Amino acid sequence: MGSVVSGLLGGGAVDASDSTLEGSGVNVFHSSERWSLHFNDSKESNQLMVIDFAATWCGPCKFMEPAVKSMASKYTDVDFVKMDVDELPDVAQEFTVQAMPTFVLLKKGKEVERVIGAKKDELEKKIQKHRAVSNA
C-alpha cells in the first residue's frame, strides 16, 4: 500500500521510474524522495520490510536476484524493496551499508535483522522468523 500512496503523492520533481521489478513483487526505488514516502508509510505498519541493497556491477547481488524474486512471490505479506547503492548512496549511508548485497529487515521503521552477503538460506530463515511474529 505504501507504494500506492508514494505513487499518488510523488509529485513531478520525483523520478517517475520507480517500479516493481518485472512483476515479482519487489519494489525498486530510484529516487530518495519516493523512498522517503514509502519508508515513512511503513513506520505505521507492522509489515516486515526487506531492503536489498545491491549494485549493477556486483556479482553476488546478481546471484541473489532470482532468490529474492522467488521469496517476494512466496511471502506476499512482506514488503520487498531493492535499491542500487550507486543510485541512492544517501539511503545506503543512512543504513550504514558497507558491502553488497546487504539485506536489512525492518519493522515499523526499525531494523530487526541484517544479512550481509549472498546467503539465501539465512535471509529466508530471518524472513520466516520475523513475518511469523507479525502473523501470529
Describe the structure.
This protein has helices at 2-9, 32-42, 59-74, 89-94, 120-135, and strands at 19-20, 26-29, 48-54, 79-84, 102-107, 110-116. The chain has a six-stranded mixed β-sheet, with helices on both faces. It contains five helices and six strands, in the order αββαβαβαββα. It is globular. Mean pLDDT is 85; it is low at 1-17. It is of the alpha/beta class and 136 residues long. α1 packs across α2 (32-42). A hairpin with a 2-residue loop joins β5 (102-107) and β6 (110-116).
Task: Quickly list its features.
alpha/beta; 6-stranded mixed beta sheet; disordered N terminus; 136 residues
Secondary-structure map:
Blueprint: H1 2-9, E1 19-20, E2 26-29, H2 32-42, E3 48-54, H3 59-74, E4 79-84, H4 89-94, E5 102-107, E6 110-116, H5 120-135
Helix pairs in contact: 1-2
The number of helical runs is 5
In the predicted model, the low-confidence regions spanning at least 5 consecutive residues are 1-17
| Biggest beta-sheet profile | 6 strands, mixed
- In helices, the fraction of residues equals 40-55%
Quick take:
Helices cover 42% and strands 24% of the residues.
